[in-house]
Specification:
Layout: H1 11-46, H2 52-73, H3 82-92, H4 101-114, H5 122-139, H6 144-163, H7 166-178, H8 183-204, H9 228-258, H10 266-286, H11 290-293, H12 309-316, H13 323-349, H14 357-377, H15 386-402, H16 405-416, H17 422-439, H18 444-451, H19 459-467, E1 481-482, H20 487-497, E2 502-505, E3 511-515, H21 517-523, H22 535-538, E4 546-547, H23 552-561, E5 566-570, E6 577-582, H24 583-594
């Protein structure tokens, strides 16, 4: 079986993946169940009426204080959050994550979200699952490659169990965290994701997600070709907004990072800013202004507090009605979307615990509902179903924010189990992702890392080298030499033409070997003996020459085998040297393509 799946001797990783899926699936139930219970208790207390304003003030401070204590007990050198921390470990630290990350994320995110902090539990459960998978691999003394696979299994299992969405869990890990779609990685992660979802559904005896939006009934009308422009436009708008959100989160991280105060005090400042927004909303609410009452009632906490999933459920059932009510709804949603983004920036930018997944879903839902209201207000825009608008907005925003179109689309598809929504979801998710990349190259996760001057390579970065041919570059000039030539001739040519690496040819001019500049410089130590040396004694025949149709990633692999600054390029037909390619040329192409100055 291992050979059939191209796993070689890694067949046992499949068993470990299933173990990860079952254990982390059960663990996710405990994590989310605890948080759900706290949210229900606080919600009931807040609904008693007169205490609402005081709860809106006290809760975020209490949660921030608990988070600070937890961070003091379980310190971390990295200032970012769950998914970003996992990405850093995968790409910079050989997938090594400390087990202490699990209680840090568990307790800290529970305190932050339950007390009204604008964050989500999905990022923490991804970090918890990743830490367990990484630690599991370390205990078994597996190598870095297998440790990365088990880390990905833990991350996919956590997300899959929370949403009951195994496909979304798989694609999120492959697109965002690992950026690796090989069979060696794909197969174990699928097994872990599926077993985690099955474990959660077996314990709950229900296919509904343990945290998030319950399955809803939506119309099953097929998507028509005439409807593609309206979903494409929604995807474009969503992508631009998602890029703006990523920029805002990066700016918030940098702003709090510049504050010359102890890091453990910063979450309290973030809580104070969140409270200021909550108090302003509550006071406006008590005056019963239309834009504050259309989505919430008078006995609820500000809707931008917490994970926001109740707000999504209300948006899915909110009728738009006449142009007058649509105008009020549009204004309310525009304000709410801005406040949700600001609240998330205050909560997570200041160092609070939690993830960006849920805020992305909420902002996308608000944006989709606002777009539906806009189609009622603007006759030139074809009407779009409010339910479809909310769902497509959710999937497109997550896709654009994470630069993961498949994960965003399949998440909402698995929540609804409706094939009718899949086509507009995929269209909007892809367009939103492209638009977000054009506006701002970083995702919400890599933007957080960039705020701390950490840059990770991406799949697109590697594809640049795979898609660029050597023929696309201007080759450096080469001076072929014969095997029988004197080594002194190489010194003379180097001084006259500033050429230090030489392809060696036979009597017919065909490639025979290569003389590196480093070997010539070494021979200079015995300059008096140079006249006695020939090219044959300096020549290396283990240098495989490159051809014009080879790609730059092939050239980079050849450079990794040899300590040289240039490699020969030959004509594929005649086998004659046509020039040299240098390491610096490859790096210049790469840096230019990814925007590095």
């Amino acid at each position: 079986m291992g050979n059939a799946l191209r796993l070689g001797q890694d067949w046992h990783v499949l068993i470990l993946a299933a173990v990860c899926g079952i254990s982390i699936g059960a663990l996710a139930l405990v994590f989310i169940g605890t948080m759900n219970w706290l949210l229900r208790q606080l919600g009931q207390f807040a609904s008693q009426g007169t205490t609402q304003l005081w709860i809106a003030i006290a809760m975020p401070f209490a949660g921030a204080a608990i988070t600070v204590i937890v961070f003091r007990i379980f310190p971390s050198s990295f200032k970012g959050h769950g998914v970003s921390r996992v990405m850093l470990a995968v790409h910079r630290q050989k997938s090594v994550l400390p087990l202490s990350l699990a209680p840090r994320q568990w307790i800290g995110s529970t305190a932050t979200i339950s007390s009204g902090g604008s964050a989500g539990p999905e990022g923490p459960i991804v970090a918890i699952g990743s830490a367990i998978g990484s630690t599991f691999a370390s205990w078994l003394e597996l190598d870095a490659g297998r440790r990365t696979t088990l880390l990905g299994c833990g991350a996919a299992a956590g997300l899959s169990a929370v949403f009951g969405a195994p496909l979304a869990g798989v694609f999120f890990v492959l697109e965002v965290i690992l950026r690796d779609f090989t069979a060696r990685t794909f197969t174990p992660i699928v097994i872990a994701s599926v077993t985690a979802a099955a474990t959660a559904q077996t314990i709950l005896k229900s296919p509904d997600p343990i945290f998030g939006i319950a399955l809803i009934h939506i119309d099953q009308n097929p998507m028509l070709l005439a409807q593609t422009p309206q979903y494409a436009l929604l995807g474009l708008i969503t992508g631009i907004c998602a890029a703006g959100f990523a920029v805002g989160m990066k700016s918030a991280h940098r702003a709090f990072n510049l504050l010359r105060i102890p890091p453990l005090v910063k979450p309290l400042i973030g809580a104070a800013l969140l409270v200021a927004c909550g108090v302003a909303w509550t006071l406006l609410h008590q005056q019963q202004l239309p834009m504050t009452t259309i989505t919430t009632n008078a006995r609820e906490l500000p809707p931008f507090y917490g994970n926001g999933y109740q707000l999504i459920e209300s948006l899915l059932s909110e009728p738009i009605g006449t142009e007058t009510s649509a105008l009020v709804l549009f204004g309310s949603l525009a304000l709410l979307m801005i406040l949700k983004a600001i609240a998330t920036a205050f909560t997570l930018g200041s160092g609070g615990a939690g993830g960006l997944f849920a805020p992305g879903l909420v902002i996308g839902a608000i944006l989709g509902a606002a777009y539906s209201a806009l189609t009622v207000l603007v006759p030139a825009l074809p009407d779009i179903s409010p339910t479809h608008g909310v769902l497509v907005g959710m999937g497109a925003f997550v896709a654009a924010g994470a630069h993961a179109p498949l994960a965003g689309a399949f998440l909402v598809y698995e929540l609804t189990h409706s094939y009718a929504i899949l086509l507009p979801l995929l269209l909007a998710a892809v367009i939103a992702t492209v638009a977000a990349r054009l506006v701002y190259p970083n995702s919400i996760y890599t933007a957080e890392l960039a705020a701390f001057n950490i840059r990770l390579s991406s799949v697109a970065d590697h594809s640049i080298l795979r898609s660029t041919l050597i023929r696309d570059l201007s080759l450096l000039p080469s001076v072929p030499v014969l095997v029988s030539d004197s080594a002194e001739l190489l010194i003379d040519i180097g001084e006259r033409k500033s050429v230090h690496d030489f392809p060696v040819v036979d009597s017919d001019g065909r490639y025979h070997g290569f003389v590196c500049g480093s070997d010539v410089r070494s021979a200079l130590v015995y300059r008096d003996a140079l006249r006695l040396l020939t090219v044959a004694e300096l020549e290396r025949t283990d240098f495989a020459p490159l051809e014009s149709d080879d790609t730059l990633d092939t050239a980079l692999q050849r450079f990794s085998r040899h300590e040289t600054q240039a490699l020969p390029v030959i004509d594929a037909q005649t086998r004659k040297p046509i020039g040299l390619i240098s390491r610096s040329q490859i790096m210049a192409v790469y840096n230019s393509a990814v925007g590095v100055q």
